[in-house]
Amino acid sequence: MKTQLATLALCVLAASCAEGGNEERPEAQVQLTAVHNIVGLIGALQFNTFPVSTDEVGPLSGRLQIGDDGRYSLSAGGSILLDDEYALETSGVFTLFQTRTQASTLVFRGAYGRDGDARALFFTDRVTSNVGLYLGVPAVAGAADVTKFAGSWHLFSTQVLFAEADTLPGIHEVGRAFVGSVSISQDGTIDGTGSESLSPTAVLPATGQLTAFDDGLIKADVNFGDTLRRFDGGASNELVIGAALDEAGDAASGLVAMLRHRVSPIDLEALAGEFEVGILTLFLNPTSAGFDSALGTMQLTAEGNFLIEARNNLGEDANFDGAFRASDTGALEMDVVRPEEVWRGAVDESGNTIVIVDNATDTAGNAPSAVRFLIAVRRAVTTE
């Protein structure tokens, strides 16, 4: 699939959208000037074939510029893909517009992290044919310096696989998800362990190399066990993001995120609050595999409970609840009630950015097998 952002949309303003009813144009309450490195992954709602074809999946690594004139531009590979208006609310709710006609405007909704060090942003694509999730971090001006990434990191990845033609159909040949913890040395060497959805209780090595470039760009070559995936993207001091662009070379595409370990103890009362959340789901049954994207909110309580309320491109609920546990490194374990699974995630030092991956594919009842990638950004407390 060629990544054409002109086809990626949530809904059409002044027309019935995926969430149902008519949409009012979001209010532009904050305008600022910033540059962000962006990665993303979209795919078909239902893949036409098994093995999955590269024509049905589109990764992206690019750059998003927003200005205090209320306009943005999104570029990749030296070409401008979108150039239009944006709206940023004081809460951090973030919207990109693409004007098609006087009566039709496409909308990409997400959130913009205005507090904390990670300063992550995300936006969703929830159109009826191709859906996905995009992540962003501030582009750090200046020369490359891989030494600033030295330390301990949480590692998360969700990947769609392009298996060989004679591969027997199976959920683990459609996609996989990985959760782990790694250290990055002064020279960018990655070393650690984790678990993959193929066998979530088995410990796999996670090794590789992080390479830094000017203006906050990175390459991350990561071996998940003995399988190499190569990611291009960007990084802040707290968050590394990448997309696997070499679909043919890696026989896969996907997203990776690394969130730095916390150094201060977790305070559940300080962590509690409301977050905007974006969810990318990859359904794994070979006869009905495909992507789903959802947008909503996540509530965390000081008692250790969570509630995710989101809606996908069809306006269907994507709600999850349960209890969570947090360690002082920032690692999270989410005991999901339905489907009955344990998801793993992490929260950054500021408590404002959370990444979660569902790498448990065993489901009860009629729930379909799936892996999920979630990013959550705290609703801003600033009022400017």
Describe the protein in words:
With 384 residues, the chain is mainly beta. It folds into three domains: 5-135, no CATH class; 146-260, Quinohemoprotein amine dehydrogenase alpha subunit, domain 2 (Lipocalin, Beta Barrel), CATH 2.40.128; 268-378, Lipocalin (Beta Barrel). Helices cover 2% and strands 55% of the residues. The chain has helices at residues 247-250, 268-271, and strands at 11-12, 34-44, 57-66, 71-76, 79-88, 93-101, 104-112, 121-126, 130-138, 151-161, 175-184, 189-196, 199-212, 217-224, 227-235, 239-244, 252-260, 273-283, 290-300, 305-312, 320-326, 331-336, 341-347, 353-358, 370-378. The strands form three sheets. It has an eight-stranded antiparallel β-barrel. Strands 10-11-12-13-14-15-16-17 form an eight-stranded antiparallel beta barrel. It has an eight-stranded antiparallel β-barrel with strand order 18-19-20-21-22-23-24-25. The longest helix has 4 residues, at 247-250. The protein is globular, with a radius of gyration of 19 Å. 49% of the residues are buried.
The tally of strands reads 25
State the share of residues found in helices, binned by percent.
under 10%
Element-by-element helix/strand order: EEEEEEEEEEEEEEEEHEHEEEEEEEE
Gyration radius from CA atoms, angstroms: 19 Å
Concise overview:
This protein has 384 residues and is mainly β. Helices cover 2% and strands 55% of the residues.
